[in-house]
């Protein structure tokens, strides 16, 4: 999923940097007003888990890669705004420390995995689970959709940049991420079910 340097043209990476900066700034400003500092240890644990899970990746057509994302897992555990910050922090560290994802593509990677995956997955989950009762099928489908939505966004960015035709990159990305989404849904379900059973008070909205 991480797009490297040189795969996006100037108009695309500048646009994605701008869009990501606007939404991330808005999210951080809201968190400054609403943040519960008791969540800091939880956010650290969630970030470490997702960071490790994302290190297991493999090449996908178009120069990008396939791996778990963890956006809905972070949103359900810590909250969607907190998840957006967690995912962005992971992507920034991966970019500048581990060279995973390009510097010029950082805005696109944040847009795809920290913003689109988080909010699309969270709203699908909430739409299916209006009582916020952590229904297994809502958690699974929300996670699955979050992965697919991020893959579609990355495919469009690569195609708009002229790197690879959409007719080539979209089927390749969808093929792998439809499968990865199943794994992501299963992991999200397992982790959230375990936390619900052992420490339900730390779940978002349950404290």
UniProtKB/TrEMBL annotation:
Which species is this record about?
Answer: Thermatribacter velox
Q: Which residues cross the membrane?
A: 12-28, 40-60, 72-99, 105-125, 137-156, 168-192
**Its principal location?**
membrane
Topology class, membrane? Multi-pass membrane protein
Record protein name field:
Energy-coupling factor ABC transporter permease
Q: Which domain of life is it from?
A: Bacteria
Task: Tell me where in or outside the cell this protein is found.
Answer: Cell membrane
Lineage summary: Bacteria, Pseudomonadati, Atribacterota, Atribacteria, Atribacterales
User: Which of UniProt's keywords are assigned here?
Assistant: Cell membrane, Membrane, Transmembrane, Transmembrane helix, Transport
